Structures
1.
Amino acid sequence: MGFGTIVWALLPLLSLGLLAPVPFAVAAVRLRQRRMWLVTAAYAIGSALLIVGALIPEGGWGDALIGTVILVLMVAGTVHAFLLRGRVFAPSPMGPTMKPPRWGLLVVSIGMLLLGVGVVVLGVHDLVDNLRPVSAASRRGDGVVIRVKSVTTYSGSQRRTTYHPVVRFLTEHEQVIVFTSNVGGSHSVGDSVKVRYDPNNPHRARLDSLWDRVWGAVVAVGLSLGALVVMFWGGVMFVRASAGTPLAWRSVRDSSGRPRHGG
């Protein structure tokens, strides 16, 4: 057991609880125990609560939730991982039945999973925000387009330019806010537009037309689905890396006729 296994056990502490499920998912793969997957799920629920608490406005019950969950995941997760470390990485008395983890691939797979989770959380949050009716949590106002910003993106040899309105509006407390819509359109300078904003953070504003809501929801769903694909392949890589198995798309047979993964 080397330095990599120590970092493995410290992940709940180093990540402030966000990556607490990772060591136990590795343990579940290497120990081949269903019970360990239940432990992983319990820590994953804790990490999910951490993300939910971060999305709740400041000053609410989310602050207490984040503090409690972080403490539990950091302390309990780290102690639990160190207790498992000897079993997970110790060589088998029956011989080397499993290779050491592929740490580089493990780091890449964790990065893919984190990226996917982050995009899914943002996508779902944006989807709910687009579909949610105006309530005490948001305000409506009248704005005006003061300029149009062009954004050019490239996909291979194709070039695409979209035009995003820059809008100025006045809050209920007479505060002047300027923001750029994240949804492109055919707006012109001087157009009057409806705006929806967060009264606690007026810079979190968006256009409030039906088209902008529908298009924003479509973009959010598309990003979330793409993130789920990234998470799927990240999960495949994670299992392979945890078991020390080369990432291969086919298997060949060795001289004894048993399946052997090829590169």
Note: The beta strands are 139-155, 158-170, 176-180, 192-198, 201-207, 251-253, 259-261.
2.
Amino acid sequence: MNPLAAVAVAAPAAATTGLSINIFWVIVAALNFIIFLALIWRFGFDPIAAILAQRKTRIEQGLADAEQAHRDLAASAAERDQMLAQARREVTELVARAQKAADDLRETDIAATRAELERLQAKATADIAAEHDRVLADLRAEVAGLALDAAGKVVGETMTGPRHRRLVEEFLRERSVPPQGRKN
């Protein structure tokens, strides 16, 4: 037989009416509660506490990772902004250099065109002057020939000698010198 049952049987039965407190059963209930609490603590609360601790650790790690990701995002945004600013500066410099090169090329082309125009103008002026001189020389020769023919008809002889030709050319030269203030 159970020792607890033996103690319960040995206890005198009191004839009381109403509510009575039996110390034995209070101690048994307290012991049952303590044993039950120890078992629940050992097999229930400890695993739950371990699971909660792991969850807390994972949450803290997740928060730390999120904070790190936030810092990384801010750093990458700052780096991106810095790279964009640098790219804008480089583009601005490149556009300025291209504009300067285009301006220089345009100025060079303009200068070359002006030089070519001046050269062509000088050549045309020289060609006109040479043609003028050639036509004038041809005209003088023609006038000299006509003057010799006319003088020959007037005198009645042919004037073909070099001396007569020289005289006519000297006359034409003296006559072809322009008066002051007037050009040929």
Note: Residues 25-176 form one domain.
3.
Amino acid sequence: MGRWLEKIEKGDGDTPRKPPKSPLGALGGEVDGPFSEKNEDNHPVTSTDWLEWIAERCPLVPEDYRHVATGLLRLHPRMQQRLAERYVEEWRAAADDEPTYHKRDNAGRHAANLIITRLKRGAEYV
């Protein structure tokens, strides 16, 4: 038997941990060890974490949740952060530029969702 297997049986050494739960619910692993869902700085790591992060900063309707989630799931985790930050920036900029108070949410939502629509069509990069 190999040394690595002997270490696992004895409980010594670095044993691989189960991966965290998938945002799609496909994996049923425990969140623990090196694959924890949150890093030391408490920055979001998974696409669902980024979705919650966006929702804390700008109001999302159910359609926005679906639209943003599909956009996030297409990207590598590092790119998910860039998309989330850009989404919030665009939302706030468009809402601030709208002079009519009651139209601000829709203006922000429209501008931010255009980023994801263009990304899905391949016309824009994050």
Note: The CA atoms of residues 5 and 15 lie 10 Å apart.
4.
Amino acid sequence: MSRAVTSLAIWITLIIALATAAHAADTGTAIARLKSFGGSCEGCNLAGRQLTNASLVGAQFSGASFIGADLRGSRFKGSDLSKADFSKADLRGADILGSDFESADFNGANLSGIVAKGSNFEDANFNGARLEAATFIGSNLESARLAGADLSHTTLTGVNFEMVDARGSDFSYSALLGANLEKAIFRGARFIYSRLDGANLANARMDGANLSHASMVKTWIGGTDLSQVTGLTQDQIDRACANAQTRLPPAVKPHICPRAWVH
């Protein structure tokens, strides 16, 4: 099937689904419907659309606009949504598996409670986004922007956060087990009661960050400047792993150990 025909088929499906949703709204009837999309529709404009419980499987929607769209409970599997615009969209409870969101824009979006496994969010923009209680497992967020984002109560297992800019973000009560946070910017971020066990914080920029009650068992802090953080205790550092380049507050002594000790 040609690309033009495939795109036309997608648009027909969308028009029918949206017309049905509009009719349901007009009659005051709440009808839960599953909208399933596939094929290619690069650059589609779906801004402000009602797409709750939509299912995008093997779909090519790179560069598409979902600005302000309602995508609650949606499912993305093996799909390409690189450079798509989800700013101010509602993706609460979305299920994401093996999909590509490289350079996508989630500025101000609500992603509370999403589950993302094995997906790519490299260089994505999450500035000011709501991600509380989200789950990211084995996903790549390298160089993502998360300034002022709410990541409290999140589960971030084995994620790659290398070089992310998460200044002023809230990671309180979150689990970043085995996460790669190398060279990330966490200025003014909150890690209150978070779990950083086994995480790599090498050369991260932490000035003004709050580490009160954070668990740091086998956390690698080699080369990291923690001299300006708040809430850091000797007990936390005794469980972590520093090197000669680690900088700490005056009252805290480093626990030097080889990097291999972390693994």
Note: Strands lie at 36-37, 55-57, 75-77, 95-97, 115-117, 135-137, 155-157.
